Amino acid sequence: MDSSVYETLGPADFHAAYDEVLAEWPADTRQSSVPTPYGRTRVTSSGPADAPPLVLLPGGRATAVSWYANAAAFSRSCRVHAVDLIGDPGRSVPDPRRPVRTVADLTAWLDAVLDGLGIGATAVAGHSYGGWIALHYALHAPDRVTRLALLDPTGCFAGFRAGYLLHALPMLLRPSPRRIRAFLEWETGGVPHAAAWLRLQETTAGFPAARPVTGPRPSAAALRSLRTRVLLLVAASSRTHDPRQVAARAAELLPDVETAVLPDVSHHALPYTNPAATNRRLLEFLGG
């Protein structure tokens, strides 16, 4: 592709790439738009309507359809609802009059999403930033989270490595398809990406996204108070944080946690690298 075109991908390119990844989802997949006080949230759903619900929260800038390698397996026994994070690249449409700025905003937004889907309580799984949101939501509304699965969550049990932040900074300050590709290739150690998924990541470069809600890790007291059963899947090859520190801190603080360290998996590639193992562990946890 000509470099000048490569650097000027626009909304049409994003939606085409989004639909290409969405096509990897099961045939019964449907998308809906759920109204919330913070804007309309796009939800991608599949699986039997009467099956137990499972809400999936993606990593930052990854979009709901990034669960493409997991959706079919999860949908056999769950009603899957993958959410485009409000204010993030995706098909959710934030209300400019009421931006999401705090953790309280995020949890209120997710309350409204569940209400709009008619879900009282659900299992929740989150990857990366989605794991951070999922953990905060479980602390906010423990009666609404039946099981909690955290896939290499960021900002929950350990801080970012300095080297990761240095590599990520140029992409975050001035995102471009080329910088996104280079960053992902570095973090995953050169492991090949699915072509459609990589195109989708590249096309988020020009997407108008709000500044993500960030903050300190949940306090030790808050984590010790959590009674929800937790599955923590740690990417052994993650360059984002120290995997051993993540696993040790979670084991120290969470009252009911099952931890597995996944070999030869990096942080950003976790949902789709060796998905059979990830899917099996999560489904065993949900059914156990």
Overall shape: globular
Low-confidence stretches: 1-6
What is the CA-based Rg, rounded? 18 Å
- Could you give the count of β-strands? 9
Q: What is the structural class?
A: alpha/beta
Mean pLDDT: 93
Approximately how much beta-strand content do the residues carry?
A: 15-25%
Tally of individual helices: 11
The main β sheet shows up as: 9 strands, mixed
Order of helices and strands: HHEEEHEEHEHEHHHHEHEH
- Helix fraction, binned, reads 25-40%
**Termini Cα gap:** 49 Å
What does this structure look like?
It is globular and about 45 Å long. Strands 1, 2, 3, 4, 5, 6, 7, 8 and 9 form a 9-stranded mixed beta sheet that branches. It has helices at 3-6, 11-22, 71-75, 103-117, 129-140, 162-173, 177-187, 195-203, 220-225, 243-253, 275-287; strands at residues 30-36, 39-46, 53-57, 79-83, 93-94, 122-127, 145-151, 229-235, 257-262. The chain is built from 11 helices and 9 strands. The model is unreliable at 1-6 (pLDDT under 50). The protein has 288 residues and is of the alpha/beta class. Helix 2 runs antiparallel to helix 8 (195-203) and helix 7 (177-187) crosses helix 8 (195-203). The termini are far apart.
